[in-house]
Amino acid sequence: MNRIMLLAFLTIVAVFMPAAAQNGKTNSNKIAAEVRAVLNTQVDAWNRGDIPGFMNGYHRSTRTVFISGDNVTHGWQTVLENYQKNYNSREKMGTLTFSDLDIDIMSNDIAVATGSWRLKRANDEPHGKFTLIFRKTRAGWKIVRDHTSSA
Predict the structure, then answer these.
(1) All domains of the chain in start order, with CATH
(2) 44-53 pLDDT tens trace
(3) Separation of alpha carbons 8 and 31, rounded Å
(4) Residue 59 and which of 15, 50, 66, 88 are 20 to 30 A apart at CA?
(5) pTM (2 d.p.)
């Protein structure tokens, strides 16, 4: 009797495991596409000169963190105010591009995106790397931690 039950169990596992693995891959692909859409929306907003629209990619929380250079900024509102102060003209904003994107799905509600950023402006092209931690919120995928460096 035990052999029959073991054979039945192994048959069930053989039938359903590939489907479960495929569902996990499909979900990861869906999450990666949703995170990539947030980044694309940010680039579009930036290139329109819309800093509040760009900031929609961040979680509206006092716990949101932005790290750049030797500075750590806490809170969505403070990050917004810093962007508005430092990029107060279209000339300073330039044209933003993201490249070399890699999105790692940590769980159904956490993803990490790394990549390169570049601003094309009339007199310079600042650029660097970033690591973004995304969390799935009621409002969708949002950046909760941003560590950006300049080259």
Answers:
(1) 2-150 (3.10.450.50)
(2) 999 999 999 9
(3) 35
(4) 88
(5) 0.83
